[in-house]
Amino acid sequence: MDYNSSASEEEHSSVHKDIEKRFGINHRFFNKVGIFVCKKCGAPLFHSADRYESDNKGPFFDDTITNSVSPVIDKNKPNKRIVCTHCAYELGYLSVNEHCTRKGKRYSVNLSAVRFIEIKYHL
């Protein structure tokens, strides 16, 4: 399978399992409708409707596209790491039983691990 190449900050966030520096990447699409896809393989991961605002690093989601994201237990972290189900690319972390979302889940995604595809509606 052919994968997309990553810039150095993106590789550091996903391959080396670091969270990118706060505000290190442009969040220009936060008010747009679309989907977030895996930067490596292009698989759809999150709908923009499931994203929510936060003052922390992000973006954050409270749901995924079905069977697109898999949790991985990390013995060194209190939260589960999340990876793309299709290519195992490191995406961020999952926190459960938190009351900050509608569904009690918080997917903290490394913005450098995903790409946003805007959906434009034509009437």
Provide an overview of this structure:
This protein is mostly beta strands and 123 residues long. The protein has a single domain, classed as Beta Complex (Metal Binding Protein, Guanine Nucleotide Exchange Factor, Chain A), CATH 2.170.150. Helix content is 6%, strand content 32%. It is built from one helix and nine strands. The strands form two sheets. A six-stranded antiparallel β-sheet has the order 3-4-8-7-6-5, with no helix packed on it. A three-stranded antiparallel β-sheet has the order 2-1-9, with no helix packed on it. Strand 1 and strand 2 form a beta hairpin. The longest helix has 7 residues. The N and C termini lie far apart (37 Å). It comes from Coprobacter tertius. It catalyses: L-methionyl-[protein] + [thioredoxin]-disulfide + H2O = L-methionyl-(R)-S-oxide-[protein] + [thioredoxin]-dithiol.
Summarize the model shown.
The protein has one helix and nine strands, in the order αβββββββββ. With 123 residues, it is mainly β.
Average pLDDT number? 78
| Secondary structural class | mainly beta
- Structural Rg: 14 Å
CATH architecture: Beta Complex
| Strand content bin | 25-35%
Can you count the helices? 1
Give the overall shape, derived from the CA principal axes: globular
- Secondary structure tally: strands: 9
Element string (H = helix, E = strand): HEEEEEEEEE
List unreliable stretches of 5+ residues: 12-25
Instruction: Briefly note the CATH topology name.
Output: Metal Binding Protein, Guanine Nucleotide Exchange Factor, Chain A
What is the CATH superfamily? Peptide methionine sulfoxide reductase
User: How many angstroms does the end-to-end distance come to?
Assistant: 37 Å
Q: Helix fraction?
A: under 10%
GO molecular function: peptide-methionine (R)-S-oxide reductase activity
Organism: Coprobacter tertius
Keywords: Metal-binding, Oxidoreductase, Zinc
Protein name: peptide-methionine (R)-S-oxide reductase
